[in-house]
C-alpha cells in the first residue's frame, strides 16, 4: 500500500497563510495525480485541489486564487499553500493519491490520516 503522511496543520487567524504537506511512501510504480480534500464537521468531504506529475492543476471554486497546490516528484510530496484563509476553510485536510502498483488492478486511491486546519476570525 501507499502511505500518505500529512503535516503542517494548525490554528491560524483569518487572512493569514499556512502550508501543509503530504509525503508518500511505500511500493508503487507511479502516483498521478495527487491532491487534497477537506471535510468540515457535519459536511461532506470535498475536493480542494489536484495536481498531476506534469504540473497540471485543478482547484475548487471556493479556494481558487487563494490556494496553490504544488508537488516535488523526486520526494513524492505534495504541498498546499493556503493564503488569505477564511473561517470557512476550517476542516480536516486529507491527502489523496492515485497509484499504480503490484497490489492494485488498474489505478488505486490512497488516503492520508488528515491534518486539522482551524481558522479563527
Ends apart, CA distance between termini: 39 Å
Arithmetic mean pLDDT: 95
Rg (CA only):
14 Å
Helical proportion, percent range = under 10%
Count of alpha and pi helical runs: 0
Largest sheet: 7 strands, mixed
Task: Tell me how many strands there are.
Answer: 11
β-sheet strand percentage: over 45%
Q: What class do helices, strands and sheet pairing give? A: mainly beta
H/E order of the elements? EEEEEEEEEEE
Can you describe what's shown?
The structure is a single chain. By secondary structure, this protein is mostly beta strands. Helices cover 0% and strands 58% of the residues. It contains no helices and 11 strands. It has strands at residues 2-7, 10-13, 18-26, 30-39, 46-51, 57-59, 67-72, 77-82, 91-100, 108-111, 115-120. The strands form 2 sheets. Strands 2, 4, 5, 6, 9, 10 and 11 form a 7-stranded mixed sheet that branches. It is elongated, with a radius of gyration of 14 Å. The mean pLDDT is 95.
Amino acid at each position: 500500500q501507499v502511505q500518505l503522511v500529512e503535516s503542517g496543520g494548525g490554528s491560524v487567524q483569518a487572512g493569514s497563510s499556512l502550508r501543509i504537506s503530504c509525503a508518500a511512501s511505500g511500493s508503487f510504480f507511479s502516483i498521478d495525480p495527487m491532491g487534497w480534500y477537506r471535510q468540515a464537521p457535519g459536511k461532506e468531504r470535498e475536493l480542494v485541489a489536484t495536481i498531476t506529475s506534469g504540473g497540471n492543476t485543478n482547484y475548487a471554486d471556493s479556494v481558487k486564487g487563494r490556494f496553490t497546490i504544488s508537488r516535488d516528484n523526486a520526494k513524492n510530496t505534495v504541498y498546499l499553500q493556503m493564503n488569505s484563509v477564511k473561517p470557512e476553510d476550517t476542516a480536516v485536510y486529507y491527502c489523496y493519491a492515485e497509484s499504480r502498483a503490484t497490489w492494485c488492478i488498474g489505478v488505486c486511491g490512497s488516503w492520508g490520516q488528515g491534518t486539522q486546519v482551524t481558522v479563527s476570525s
